From TrEMBL:
This is Alpha/beta hydrolase fold-3 domain-containing protein. Residues 161-383 form the Alpha/beta hydrolase fold-3 domain. GO terms for molecular function: hydrolase activity. Belongs to the 'GDXG' lipolytic enzyme family. It holds the Pfam family Abhydrolase_3. InterPro entries: AB_hydrolase_3, AB_hydrolase_fold, Carboxylest/Gibb_receptor. It comes from the Eukaryota.
Amino acid sequence: MKHVVGKTYTAVVCFTIAECLVLFNRVHNKVKYPIIPSYTPIKLLYKGPSSFITQTSHIYTLSNPKERKNIANKTTTMVHDQKTLVDEVSGWLRVYDDGSVDRTWTGPPEVKFVSEPVPPHHHFVDGVATADVIINPVSGLSVRIYLPEKNPTDPDKFPVVLHFHGGGFCISRADWLMYYQMYTKLASSARAIVVSVYLRLAPENRIPAACDDGFEALQWLGSLSRAESHETWLDQHADFNRVFLIGDSSGGNVVHEVAARAGHVDLSPMKLSGAIPIHPGFVRSERSKSELEQPESPLLTLDMVDKFLKLALPVNCTKDHPITCPMGAAAPPLEELKLPPVLFCLAENDLIKDTEMEYYEGLKKAQKEVELLISPGMGHSFYLNKIAVDLDPNTAAQTCSLIKGISEFIHKH
């Protein structure tokens, strides 16, 4: 297992609130997204591995708006010789007629840092160490492990939280800063080892590829529990009697599918103790009331919902597919599934709130053990928006409440 050891640095980033609002409006097609109701200068103090600053330091020096615009224009005018653009999801992804996919960020460079990779660090930074591990040498399937530093009051072993990242099945990686800043906090707060899977992406790998990867990662944990394979950190510190699934957005879809598959196999001596879908991408072909009425947010627009799922679903399938609509007629009845206890996390202002609630009500009707955790006034995956978390006290408070609720669920099971 190869580790990249980084050092700690401190960078001070100066933006006005007005600039932040302009940035998000530019990225998300002029969507209104209030961060703080004031326009005073603000400083953001950020700490992280030293190797990260060399990758992104250019974004912190762009104080001149004209300079920012020029760089953004240069970024978006990349030449693709003899290729025709077939589809595009603004800023995030472009698909060409030769089947190639370009995931280079073409939005404002000032916000690119949230999707930059954070190198693993084997030493403890703010109480958490990280490592990247290949779990399948043939396919190259890998995971990122977050290990909390042992406290005197901790038990001998930590519960394990298997994480599936979001991104509409089409973008994002387990090592992105937006996940690093969230799941280091969760590992430290919940006193749990987080294992985040590098899921394959669509359209190169359409559904159910991401679910296959998630289930393979769960089976890998099972093999560790039986000493059929080995990973040093997990061998020494993991409590395989308390394994949980957690996933953001489309990762929440993976949580449901992996939990459903797990109900058909013997994972012993490992025990699947809970499932935590956070703002899962559960939708239907027909627009819901919330899709028509709720405001779009920086991390979810109707364009993203429609285009990502068009690229991710099997050819000629609709959003009524069992993985995107597990409460629908095409999916196995929820009553027939053997599911662990569920903590269902919902954002009050989520664009797809209605279909998410339909799934929750379906679990209750099927007499499954399910709890509901609502984040009032928040939008889809708000806690991954590092700028909002750092600058808006309410978003920060709601993120802390979400982490606390998840930690309590883990401790209870």
